[in-house]
Amino acid sequence: MADIAELVLQHIDKSDGIDTLQLSEALKEDHQKVVGAVKSLQALRDVINAEQRVAKRLELTDEGKDVLLNGSYEAQIFKAVPKDGIAQDQLMESVPNSNIGFSKAMQAGWITIDKAAEGGQRVLRKVESIKDEVQIILEKIDRQDLSDVTEAQLNEFKRRKLVAEVKVTSYLLSKGPNFTLKVERQENELTPEMITSGTWKNKEFKQYNFDAMGVMPASGHLHPLLKVRSEFRQIFLEMGFSEMATNKFVENSFWNFDTLFQPQQHPARDAHDTFFLSDPAMANKFPMEYLKKVKNVHEKGGYGSQGYRYEWKIEEAKKNILRTHTTANTARTLYALAQKTPFKPGKFFSIDRVFRNESLDATHLAEFHQIEGVVIDFGLTLGDLMGFMNEFFKKLGIQKLRFKPAYNPYTEPSMEVFSYHEGLQKWVEIGNSGVFRPELLLPMGFPEGVTAIAWGLSVERPTMIKYKIDNIRDLIGPKVDLKMLHCQHYARLRFHEPMMSCALST
Ligand code: PHE
Fold first, then answer.
1. Using alpha carbons only, what angle is made at residue 174 by residues 173 and 180, rounded to the nearest 5 degrees?
2. Span from the CA of 405 to the centroid of ligand 1 (angstroms)
3. Which ligand 1 atom sits closest to the C-alpha of 330?
4. By alpha-carbon position, which residue is closest to atom 9 of ligand 1?
5. 363 Cα–ligand 1 center, Å
6. Which domain-ending residue is among 170, 192, 214?
7. Domain count within the chain
8. pTM confidence score
């Protein structure tokens, strides 16, 4: 069977000027399909001329189609009246739209009422037979044959909502300068075979459609915390740091606390501050040599320290927890470094999630992210730490720093770091830092004279400041506005003005 496009060409060949509506009737094909074939012929450049026309056309409404099928309501009433009449009540129940049909049939003089009949009013036929003009005219309109349909009839039918006017776009078709009866398929692609065989020379190629809407590239969006994380990462990498492994949300108390010279009675090791695991509740693999040294330094000290002077218990160290700080990873990394000889200085960082059993409020969740850095070498001092902090925060666009003495079990001295926040017009705490204690480094096996400076900060605080978010639930969790995530600018911590990645409409 020839395809529609070829049939269209044959019809154009036989006529001078044919409309697609006529064609659709002649071919008994849906008009849309004929138009589709015309479009594909138009793409062949000058094979056909197609002139667009908009015409008004009358079409039957659904109700009109129903009347065409079953007769007008008045005709239905007439047909429902038998020769010897029918009780009016019964008649009215037997056909749809009986009210309209009844009054129309009365007007037309087709039926009459016998008011004096026994047992209530009866309806009787007044004529032998009727001609259902409404149905006849609708049938003509349906064929688009309006030759003897009067204006008044059309208006009445429109008013009765049996017909409606619709706009139809059609094309008047005629031969183009390159008219042909055969449709040469256009090639979509130039293939290697066409090139090697040389057949490309005789092929017609489909035109590019530069107006086609492209497919929206599917893309994910980084969460603001991830954007800030990647900025921090970049800064560490620029400063020559390597990334520590952080793939342990579940840590044991030994690495999270004991190796960091945090005594076993320390309040942070309480269930109020730390999440303990019930299954598996205990870890059982430790480097035993090192564990003994840790036990010893807690109980008796050494390396110039007197220790905490209590009985250190392995049961306490075995307890599994969700790590409370990334300093647990730092302890593991430093221990691994200490096992390598000769000693090599190092700079390490990590950015990952930690967990604390906190009461939740607008700025605190039970899980958050920490950024941590550590530098280890011979003879690093507090001066190095302060210098380093200045350099590190300058890279974030933070110029003014203040240090306040603080306490950490694992650092001495320890300092909280504050920066002046221009927006809030006050000093805000941005991090915690210190010089690792010899009680921590020497049991690991580092040589005398090696010191380490370290610091930690949260990812959430600078993110909330940078993105002007004052409730942490707008940043993480089920209440987060996904559009905000999609459109939020890249953090660009080193610049004051944020860059929007798309317009945030209200
Ligand atoms: N671990 C500390 C905290 O959780 C941060 C810190 C890291 C402090 C390293 C000093 C040295 O707040």
1. 115
2. 13
3. 9
4. 455
5. 19
6. 192
7. 3
8. 0.58
Q: Which of 150, 176, 192 delimits the end of a domain?
A: 192
- Which ligand 1 atom sits nearest the alpha carbon of residue 373? 9
Q: From the CB of 437, is ligand 1 less than 6 Å away?
A: no
Whether ligand 1 lies within 6 angstroms of the CB of 408 is answered as: yes
Rounded distance between C-alpha atoms, residue 257 and residue 420, angstroms = 32
170 Cα to the center of ligand 1, angstroms: 76
Atom of ligand 1 nearest to the CA of 372: 7
SS3 content of the chain, % helix, strand, coil (to 5): 35, 25, 40
**φ and ψ at residue 161, rounded to 5 degrees:** 55, 35
Give the distance (Å) from ligand 1 centre to CA of residue 116: 107
Complex ipTM > 0.90: yes
Range of the domain at 20: 4-62+138-192
Q: Which of 246, 368, 266 is nearest to 317 (CA)?
A: 266
> How far from 295 is each of 268, 300, 301, 448, 450, CA to CA, in Å?
19, 8, 9, 20, 21
Domain co-membership, 180 together with 282? no
Judge if 340 and 424 occupy the same domain: yes
Residues 344 and 397 reside in one and the same domain? yes
**187-238 pLDDT, tens digit each:** 889 999 999 999 999 888 888 888 888 776 667 788 888 888 988 999 999 9
The answer, yes or no, to whether any atom of ligand 1 lies below 6 A from the CB of 254, is no
492 in a structural domain = no
Question: 23-48 pLDDT, tens per residue?
Answer: 999 999 999 999 999 998 888 878 99
Same domain, yes or no, for 234 and 151?
A: no
Whichever domain contains 166, its CATH number is: 3.30.1370.240
SS3 96: coil
Please state whether beta strands 242-243 and 346-355 pair in parallel, antiparallel, or not at all (unpaired). Answer: parallel
Q: Which atom of ligand 1 is nearest to the CA of 370?
A: 4
- Same domain? 344 vs 406: yes
Cβ–ligand 1 distance for 88 under 6 Å, the answer no
Q: Is the CB of 326 under 6 A from ligand 1?
A: no
Pocket flag, ligand 1, residue 455 (CB < 6 Å): yes
Give the residues of the chain that fall short of pLDDT 70: 1-2, 216-218, 488-506
**CATH code for position 397:** 3.30.930.10
Which strands, in side-by-side order, build the sheet including 111-114?
86-87, 122-125, 111-114
Q: Report how far ligand 1's centroid is from the alpha carbon of 155 (Å).
A: 87
